[in-house]
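Risk register update: the risk that structure generation would not scale has been downgraded. Supporting records follow, first protein first.
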Amino acid sequence: MIRTLVRAVSDVRRREQVAVAAAVLTAVLLSLTVLLADAPYATGDEPPHMDYAYQVWHGELPVFEEGLKLRPEGAWLAPVQWTAQHPPLYYLLVAPLVGPLADAGHPVAAVYAARAVNTVLAGLFVLVAWWSARRLCRPGSPLPQLVALVAGLTAAVAHVGGSGYNDLLATVLVTTMYGVSATAIRRGLDGRLVVGLCLLAAGCALTRLSTAVIAVVVAAFGVLAGSVRAAQGRGRWAPVAWLAIGGPATALAAAGWFYARNVALTGNIQGSHFDWALEHQNRTERPVWAVLIDPVTWARLPDLFWWAGRVPPRALHPAVTLVVTALLLVWVPLVLAVVHRIREQRGPSGAGGGHPVDLRLLAALPWTAAAVAVTMQVLYAASSGGVYPRYFLPVALPLFLAVAAGLAVRPRVLVPVWAGVTLADLVVWLVLELATPAGPGLYSEPVVPAAAVGFLAVASAVGATALTLRAYRTPAATAPSATAEASTNHTAS
């Protein structure tokens, strides 16, 4: 009996690991498809990001007013260096690739090299999303494997993974912090967790200011959980003190100098130039309430699954965003998860039978971080900034958990339908992207390789979906209430 049970548990874990590996491969292939399909230096942000890495390679940091020093012929060049406000960690990572290639007269190869790094980060993100979800969910929950599938099929992950942006590094760091902080909540703080949270917080602070704020929130839950444990006699005060003092100290030591530089150059810690944007980019300031009641805010901000609306014809944009991706792929699963949770209120609750305070902290951790990120995005939009889904990526894990909970209500039906809609939107994007010629002066896209890799990515996504369903059925079969518990006992509830 015991041997049979052990064998069954081992088989479940093996199937889940295979399904997660397929999701990781899908994310890499989708990012590689974007890498090949999008013309180099064709967006407004990629040239400044590459220029930042180029300047770092030459021992400099960019200045907004000085513009770009890497100016490839035929590229779309920003009039100012509008990524200069970001800390330099990502650019230190890609500078050894971008700098030598650009100096050798190969700017196209330089941007492809930076994109390749992000392609690897896309696969890593799916892996850490699954890992962190396992620590946030009750032991044995089937939700983490659904989270891996959702993350692997996310359009925003692929688009950033196939571009030379710094968002994905920030996303990987914050998502990893979720898992480390959740581990601290479950079993208590120790030296390794304190060191891990401090180093991750420092990495976040060195990548993006918004990510640094989220890192403070996530680390604060570790401090709070440790304090509660110590007060109840379930833990020690020493690790709590070390994290409370060491976390901010490590972040300040790593990145404080850069934010001081921002203040010296721009007068504000974020290094923003809203006055320039208002004058030159046709942007306007709005009251916060106007941003909050604008339907576009709530259609675009969580719309991480947006493929076809990114390319011409632009007339498709509202329909694709509101009907296909935002509604069907985000809001419908969220409503299903909430409704199912309400219906299950009378049933068992919790996340694996842990201490009640720990369970409440686990439930609050991801959603508090998400609420802070939404608040920052709303304030940014009110100050004349745009509402961009990729800015929501660092707190994508709570959204993925909620979507996964909605799909878990009827996984055999909803998972294939959700994946099918996602892939249909992907195919439309790929066809439109490859059929749209590069703009005048821009580098042409490698159409044939992009189409071939795109076909492999779709095949991998189909395989990942099938493997996820195969792995998901096992816990459902061995425990009749597993589907209900999946929605009831995870942190999205």
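Supporting record for the second protein:
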Amino acid sequence: METPATCSALIGAPVLLLVAEPWDFISTYGRGRLQGQISNIRDFGPIGGQELWVSLSSLIIGGHPIDSLRATPLRMVESDIVRRLLDRRPAAVRLLGPEGSGVRLAAAIRRLGPARPSS
């Protein structure tokens, strides 16, 4: 019997965010690209979906400094973001900035490597 991987296996994993909306998004990583690490995961159960927090190096969007984004499923068919990333498949997500920033991006998230080993 296969042991299921848990959400915590992704904490610290590097990810690439390919921003599709707005289409002219540019960061220090290039057109439509952001890189970060998964810093937290919240699972709302089978019918509620998941949220991933992605820590970023300093980024300014619309005049607001952003150091993390919250990723939620863009479509219900891909609501299990954790499973997709554990299986090394991309997922379509909506990225939300900190409250009050007004930052909303549509993107694909892809895992780049394993999580950092525990210290």
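The chain has a mean pLDDT of 83. On this basis the risk owner (M.S.) recommends closing the item.
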